[in-house]
């Protein structure tokens, strides 16, 4: 299996400690492959000043890129000495998420790992605009890392959508990739979780007064249980590792992940953009915003990134 053999680590330029690189090395030691440390940088003041000629601005860009490259190399030194295959690439680009995705497209990276910042008082992960763009638009899986060490006993929780058969291909992909990864990373325990929406739609309550909320909720839960059984049996997963809970996904999935002391939650993201993302979002994004652990976001097989390649790299 060649899963996650060409990993791109998005370097955080604001701090010397790089949890994303640590997580990448942890995976590399179990999966093999190579790591590319990638940093897009940009200083608007260099571009706008009239005191510098175009040639001088280019020279300054190259000097800044060289300094940052050396800074990353020093941070990676212990890993390099230990024999980890790490490449370093720094480019001049004013939109970090576009630069990262273009690098993925240019060099066929199969995983992006990036740090997600954490609010200490909530112990919750906070996502930046760049993070959200990557989660919605990056064609390969995106692993958002919480700033803490990976526990050997940590579990993986796969959030599956059991509401309709339309989600079956993505559910299958999520479970398959997580099981393959878990087998090679400390035989990590994998749990599946689906949430059943609890409220009876108002139009049903009005039009069918004999069809009470409990009947509706029981029917929905029954459908979810049947769908979960079919999914777990296709992968020979024991029933004790599956969970169908009453409640909203954004509440059920983070709560279960915390209860299980999960190290990572795996979700499928459909990559909505524009008004549908701004006003509606999707289940994955609602869940993501409430997590307190690592996140691995995976796209459907037919996903195409809206980001296009350009030739602006220096």
Automatic annotation (TrEMBL):
GO cellular component labels: cytoplasm
Compartments reported by the entry: Cytoplasm
Domain UspA positions: 4-146, 166-299
Top-rank taxon, per record: Bacteria
SUPFAM superfamilies, alphabetized: Adenine nucleotide alpha hydrolases-like
Record has Cytoplasm as a keyword: yes
Matches recorded under InterPro entries: Universal_stress_UspA, UspA
Signal peptide range in chain numbering: none
Family to which the UniProt record says this protein belongs: Belongs to the universal stress protein A family.
Protein name, as recorded: Universal stress protein E
Species in which this protein is naturally found: Candidatus Erwinia dacicola
